[in-house]
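[audit] Reproducing an earlier prediction to check determinism. Same input, same settings, fresh worker. If the tokens differ from the archived copy the diff job will pick it up downstream; this log only records the rerun itself.
[audit] input (189 residues):
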Amino acid sequence: MIFKVSQLNGIKSGTISLAFRRWGKPNVKKGSTMKTAIGVIKVLAVDPVSNNKISTGDAIRAGYDNAASLLHDLKKTTGTLFKIKVKYLSEDPRLELRERTDLSESELQKMLGQLERLDKTRGPWVLKVMKLIKRYPERRAGDLADIIQMDKFDFKINVRKLKNLGLTVSHEIGYSISPLGDIVMDKLR
């Protein structure tokens, strides 16, 4: 589930507690969590709703001035309309992880083992992708994928795997290697 930065900031501050999406089936479940640019968000409820049941108060809690502007934004999408109740849960644990530079030898070996398993599933890509990001920080994902002849979608999924380990940082455009990523890269060479 993707949110605009302004919506994420509203969720974090508590001014936004609802989201509306049209889906063939719900893409999130009650009780699930999502790691986002502002931290972890918890899904409190996911319920189908009809257009005429969206109140002005609902629209305001979703970050809109009124129901008409909310529905206008949803006009481009198809499927069942869902009302999703959300709340900010915590800071993203990856933020602290990516700044770590004091890994113990066992933590480092565990990390290297995880990266080795990633390479085994789809062929060796970890070091290639990390070196590319190091060489071209904050460059568009599509450009980076083209350089190493990898599908853009696969490239983004792979970088997300590295991000989940605290090795990369996502920017508005592109990525960079985190301090932890630099340490791990030195061990991979």
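[audit] rerun output stored. Observation attached for the diff report: Residues 80 and 96 are 38 Å apart (CA to CA).
[audit] end
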